[in-house]
User: What shape does this take?
Amino acid sequence: MVNMKIYLVKRSFFNFRGIQSYDLDLLGKSCLVRMREALGAEVVSGALPAGEKLVLYPVYPFLTAEEVTRFLSVHTGSVRFRGGYLERGGSFREGSDPADGMFALADYPRMLAAAERESAAYHAARGALVEEGARVDLTVQLGRGVRIGRGTCITGNSTVGEDAEIVGESFVQDSVIGAGTRVESSVLHHARVGKRCTVGPFARLRPASAVGDDCRIGDFVELKNARIGDGCKISHLAYVGDADLGERVNVGCGAVFVNYNGKRKSRTRVGIGAFIGSNCNLVAPVQVGDGAYLAAGTTLTRDLAAHDFCIGRSRETIKKDRAERYLK
Assistant: This one.
């Protein structure tokens, strides 16, 4: 137990991209925050009080209270070291650091690796597997049975439900992923995905996107401010922006929800069980009724009632034996 008062002084030994060393992120907590919480230390910016005290610079993110206690028991006088000083009266002598420190940018990768090991152990104790090479912030909540694959990064206030899998160098920020869902090589920013879904590979879910249960969001699909009902399938190569899809909607390959006319964004609404064929353009604002069918290659600019069938494409013109002449 540490009885001596500990103060943290915001001294930076280096900066990276304009960020002071003590504020660099170590899986959800900066060096300064980690030391303040672990040691019960007080952060000061002005004059320090007189008397005995341990003054530390925020360079020891993994320093423990037990290590501080041992350090204090060894040093009975005043000591200076790279990362601070211990003042106990009398003249100062030079001493060694109480722990491994982050004094240069070259030390940062080692501290990140230590943070990754700490996070993996923290989540493993709660029944989730974080593989070596994955990064999961301590602020993230992982359910039991979750597997986070190598190369994946999960940050902020993200939540992952039981038995979900996030693999293949995915990036998840401040998002919710339901139980039993698998995300592969995809990017989620401030998005929600329901239970038993598959996402990716190479899908992108932008802010304010919400996917229901039992959905398929396939490869090279992008969602933006879209609400996707239960059981929908958007299997590949589609853009769904500013849209509301009811349950069990099928969106074909190459479909585009045309949400911007150069002046304003508009929404598209698609009813339950509707079918959107491949290579369709839905020009918002437009509504597609329950069970309606939009044939492949159609550009839709008018509303469809329930169970309407819409086909809007020109018939082919075939000219015999013209290919060779054209290519010349």
Summary: The chain has two domains: 6-103, 107-310. The chain has a mean pLDDT of 95. The first strand starts at residue 6 and ends at 9.
